[in-house]
Amino acid sequence: MSGASFIAVDWGTTNRRAYRIENGQVVATERDDLGILSVRSGRFAELAAALRSRYDGLPMLLAGMVGSNRGWKDAGYVPAPASIADLAARLVSPADGVAIVPGVCRDGEGRQDVMRGEEVQLLGAVAAGLAPADALLCQPGTHAKWATMRGGALVDFTTAMTGEMFALLKDHALIGSEMAGEVDADDDFRAGVEASADRDLLATLFGVRAAAVLGKRPAGAAAAYVSGLLIGSDCRARFAPGQTVHLLADGLLARLYSTAIALAGGEAVVVDSHASFVAGITRIWDTKP
Q1: Residue percentage of the chain with pLDDT more than 70
Q2: Which H or E run contains 286?
Q3: What is the C-alpha separation between 123 and 128, in angstroms, rounded?
Q4: pTM tops 0.90, yes or no
Q5: Cβ atoms of residues 135 and 239 within 8 Å
Q6: Radius of gyration of the chain (CA)
Q7: 3-state secondary structure of 59
């Protein structure tokens, strides 16, 4: 099927992005807020058909949370180590002309983990030569993914609740009222990353409250400091000093993680996550039976 036109869809929890791909190139794209949480049960087929009709009825390959047990059809998980060929061999079809990419899981040595959607970008980054075949990749976000690639395959990974923890602290913790101000890779963020070197996260988090009470941290600085503390703790747990991390991110997340990785002794190489997705989904399409 190499070179055939198709519609690739990254259908996540809150958003949906579609690409018309011809001969491996994106010729049209659209994005909307019809993530799976916005879709009532039974409407996935209707929405997919409407999208296909806008693109001449081309076949469609979906990835992301649409293949979860809360999406259109549960596409299951391929156990790590997983390759492009492994994913392509396990596609699930919820309707004629439509297929869904499975996720990837790891289950061994007393630790379980899952991903759904990120595997396409991670494998795509390597397949497109945007990252080496043997590399450590990070895709930051609400649930940051750290993936070990070997020989072009996804051999192991860890999910960290970094972004979600920041949101929970801000909305529900005692220190939440102190977490004012914007977050960026500034001096306050860097101070948080440096503080994470003490590896006493829980005590340092309470210190945010103590610093405010004692007037040791100016108003509006705590949000960036806590962000640095959490991201710094995440980074220090994932790699050794001197190691290179290929970072699938852009904008603010790329700045924050690049800064934290550098302060933790690593080297960050930013990778285009959208190009990675297109490369990954195209390779899966070209490899499928």
Answers
A1: 99
A2: helix 273-287
A3: 9
A4: yes
A5: no
A6: 20
A7: coil
